[in-house]
Write a structure and sequence with these properties.
By secondary structure, the protein is mainly α. 55% of the residues lie in helices and 7% in strands.
């Protein structure tokens, strides 16, 4: 049970719990506060008869138009109807559930002058599994997410359509409320405006994406540990002592994840000697992984901090300033509904996804390159294939193409919309954040990123199977291997008239020489072995051509659902830092 209170802070984990079905309630003390504040503001406005935007004046550029007392309720209802003009496919129900919870939390802060019934209706919808149909597009993220939030408000008054838990087909809200024995809200002055002012719709996208990206970053750190091992890479770039010399928090955390996941690795130990391995440095996609993914960590966690602050803020307009003792000092019109603080952090999450995609694609390109994958062969073809079989097989050639297509798609979704403001409301709202559009695109990016990570995991699992099957490590510098090279070159020199031709062939000879190792030396770290069992179940070793799509989809599901990370965490924890936000609450 999650509690909404004017004294407590919602965490991202609590938001996600409610999104997934947890019950929620309004604290009794908060209900009492909301009731007292509402009574007070009504009395003050009756006594002073002063104009107050949202209470007794029109909205937007109708701000100078007085509203007769007997029309105040009609104004609020018309607001919900006229502003419910979103377009496009319905937003996913998880986003709408998060939006309702965040709006309830904002109104419960006690500065919006609404009755407690408004918050309670939002919570009743959540607890009954009723989710308003909210078209994805229509908000510019400035006077709040007006259109999306109005569609939610429309459902609260019994109009429009909604989804019911367990059904994918929209139903008339009035009929659903009747079956659930819930009464439609009758809005009073300011309450329609209060429901629609704020960027909770944009923030909901960010929180859901933040939670998903945290898991996907961990999954990519695990993929890095697997790739480093099967590509005969080094664990030295992930040493704690090294990252203390450049102590960016993200790099330190990610390096520790990768380092821990590579420890006690027989395959790493068997080529640790330079005379066997022969490579002084790994390519950037491995050697700089902690720095690249660490920057993504910082982007995600910085966004989480801002989104947590936003989740616990009063954001509509106007707001009541607090005088203590359940009273207020004045009504102030401000701009807390503006989405720019959220928009820039949504873009941070967009950047994190795009950066991760670029790194993954670089690795996929190396996996299929027989000249750079340290003896795994072109396209990771199964070693037992004959020359004739190889001629008619593509093996794992095309998943690398798919990784390029996915990376390009993610880059295409990465436009900085928050830098492209378009004036609205006859110039009154002359700078808008476009936060909601960023959120919609961000959520579209996440499945593609999961598919990309899944493709890298497919390559890593195939490479591990090949290493285990051949028990062979290519070597340029091992003494025995070098003697073999010299003998082979001598034979070539005897066969080839021109010595220059033999020298030209030398690299081709060297790439096929190596050291045979015991089968036990081809095992990965304990964490790697645990993951391989799960990966091979979803994506068995490729010994002949087959259809990959269903299996790649399953790998993406393991990544997106967090199942793969949870499997690894049974062996060791992948912890995020517990920083505190501006409210003093860990995020």
């Amino acid at each position: 049970m999650v509690t909404i209170s004017h004294t407590a802070q919602l965490s991202i984990d609590e938001v996600m719990a409610v999104v997934r079905g947890a019950k929620v309630r309004l604290a009794p003390a908060t209900r009492a506060l909301l009731k007292a504040r509402r009574t007070q503001i009504v009395q003050v406005l009756k006594r002073k008869r002063e104009p107050a935007y949202g209470f007794n004046r029109g909205f937007g550029h109708n701000v100078d138009l007085a509203v007769p007392p007997n029309e105040l309720a009609e104004l609020q209802k018309n607001f919900m109807r006229s502003h419910s003009c979103g377009v496009g496919q319905p937003a996913c129900q998880e986003v709408v559930r998060a939006t309702m919870l965040l709006r309830a939390q904002s109104l419960a802060r006690g500065h919006s002058a609404v009755r407690p019934q408004i918050v309670e209706q939002l919570l009743a919808f959540l607890n009954h599994g009723i989710t308003p149909v909210v078209p994805s597009f229509g908000s510019v993220g400035a006077s709040g997410d007006l259109a999306p939030l109005s569609h939610i408000g429309l459902a609260l008054i019994g109009e429009g359509e909604c989804f019911v838990r367990g059904s994918a087909k929209p139903q008339r809200t009035a009929q659903v409320l009747k079956r659930r024995r819930l009464k439609p809200l009758v809005l009073e002055m300011k309450e329609g405006l209060a429901l629609s002012n704020g960027v909770q719709y944009s923030t909901a996208y960010g929180i859901i994406a933040c939670a998903a990206l945290r898991d996907m970053l961990k999954a990519e750190a695990l993929a890095t540990a697997l790739t480093a091992q099967v590509m005969l890479g080094s664990d030295a770039p992930f040493k704690r002592e090294l990252h203390e010399l450049r102590p960016h928090r993200g790099s330190q955390v990610v390096a520790q994840w990768i380092w821990s996941a590579m420890q006690d690795s027989p395959i790493r130990d068997c080529h640790r000697d330079y005379s066997i391995d022969g490579d002084i440095q790994d390519p950037y996609n491995l050697r700089c992984a902690a720095q690249v993914l660490g920057a993504c960590y910082d982007l995600i966690e910085d966004a989480a901090e801002t989104l947590s602050i936003e989740a616990n803020s009063a954001t509509d307009n106007p707001l009541l300033l607090d005088a203590g003792n359940d009273s207020f000092t004045e009504i102030v019109s401000g701009g807390h509904f503006h989405g720019m603080p959220v928009a820039v952090k949504l873009y941070s999450l967009v950047q994190a996804a795009a950066i991760m995609a670029s790194l993954i694609n670089a690795r996929c390109a190396r996996y299929v390159d027989g000249a750079r994958n340290k003896g795994l062969g072109s396209d990771l073809a199964w070693p037992d294939l004959t020359k004739a079989q190889r001629a008619v097989s593509s093996s794992m050639m095309i998943p690398e193409y798919v990784s390029a297509a996915l990376t390009n798609a993610l880059w295409g979704l990465s436009a900085p919309s928050h830098l492209m403001s378009i004036s609205t409301n006859s110039g009154q709202e002359d700078h808008v954040s476009m936060s909601a559009g960023l959120g919609v695109r961000l959520l579209d990016m996440l499945p593609r990123l999961a598919e990309l990570i899944g493709i890298e995991l497919a390559y890593a699992s195939q490479a591990a199977a090949i290493r285990r099957h051949t028990r062979w490590i290519p070597s340029k510098h091992h003494p025995k291997a070098q003697r073999d090279v010299n003998r082979a070159v001598a034979k070539l020199e005897a066969l080839v008239k021109r010595k220059a031709e033999a020298k030209r062939l030398r690299p081709r000879v060297e790439i096929h020489l190596g050291v045979e190792v015991p089968a036990s030396s081809m095992r990965l770290s304990p964490v790697g072995e645990r993951l391989l069992k799960r990966l091979w179940k979803a994506f068995p070793p490729v010994t002949k051509d087959r259809v990959f799509s269903p299996q790649l989809a399953e790998l993406a599901r393991l990544v997106y659902s967090g199942e793969l990370v949870r499997e690894a965490e049974r062996a060791f924890p992948l912890r995020h830092s517990q920083r505190k936000n501006g409210t003093g609450r860990a995020v």
